[in-house]
Amino acid sequence: MTRITLPRPDDWHLHLRDGAMLTGVLPETTRHFARAIVMPNLVPPVVTAAEAAAYRARILAALPAGAAFEPLMTLYLTETTDPADVAAAAASGLVKAVKLYPAGATTNSHSGVRDFDKVRGVLEKMAEIGLPLCVHGEVVDPAVDIFDREAVFIETVLDPIRRATPGLRVVMEHITTRDGVDYARAQGDDLAATITTHHLILNRNHILVGGIKPHYYCLPVAKREHHRLALREAATSGEARFFLGTDSAPHVDPLKECACGCAGCFTATNTMQLLAHVFEEEGKLANLVGFASENGPRFYRLPVNTATLTLEKTATPATWPAKIETGAGPVTVFDPGFPVFWHAID
């Protein structure tokens, strides 16, 4: 296959930031994606329905002329989140999920959850109304090695939450380990998992060997090679429980290339070309349709997009800008480190 047409894909985990950064990076997503689950970890975070509505309005105001894109809003779960506000936001159609950040786990997560008993009422209300919980699955215990944080989270936090809250629909976001793949496969259809583009390409050697590569540093951090291979097998398997969430996370270069650099890979620009490359390598190009365009909408109980995107392989390598210039500063585009011959054609 050298050409594939798929329903226009969606991104089920996206960071757009706000202000000048939002205006600068939004066109990179709207070029290929019809919808995206937008992360709420602004400063201050998007906690209430009113804040989500205001953020959505800012996103829509920043859309490039002629863009057809729908931001799917989320609420940031805190220990004081009001279950009634969550239910009202979901009933209105404004909010499609609630995001759980363990406090201190990643960028702008300091307002997240420390005591999970304090959010039990919200989780029970979400189970009642069928609203998904999107989970950043890492423990923050300093005694736990950073490469083990996902596996420990599954055992000590995620599984107990799900057992205590029957019917809660959960998305394990950006899984990075064989442990995550195995756990997702062992559950019912009330649990799904997103996989990022960069975790299909990177292992921890790519970050550290030959010098630190700050633009490959993300959270959850890339793991050993056998975990990457497990992710590739899962993503390309055709199983409905796995779908695309890029976790594309823009930071300006000075905040990436410093003594304490920010976590995040910016992949909005070239994700679809990179995915075509990966799926072709695995001999599963036909399964890209499910992963990028069908499985996510079905889990979120939304229609598959009717507009399409075509990907075509040529003898000429694809090109994209090394950086996106924004009003907040330059943002480096993810570089896979190898030539890609797939091109996106509207």
What does this structure look like?
- This protein is of the alpha/beta class.
- It contains 11 helices and 13 strands.
- The protein has an 8-stranded parallel beta sheet with strand order 2-3-4-5-6-7-8-9. A 3-stranded antiparallel beta sheet has the order 1-10-13, covered by helices on one side. It has a two-stranded antiparallel sheet with strand order 11-12.
- Helix 3 runs parallel beside helix 4.
- The two termini are about 20 Å apart.
SS strand fraction: 15-25%
Shape assignment: globular
* Fraction of helical residues: 25-40%
Structural class: alpha/beta
> Distance between the terminal alpha carbons, to the nearest Å?
18 Å
- Mean pLDDT across the residues is 96
Radius of gyration: 19 Å
Continuous helix count:
11
- Write the H/E string, N to C: EEHEHEHEHEHEHEHHEHHHEEEE
Spatial arrangement of strands, main beta sheet = 2-3-4-5-6-7-8-9
Q: Ranges with pLDDT <50 over ≥5 residues? A: none
Largest sheet: 8 strands, parallel
* Total count of strands: 13
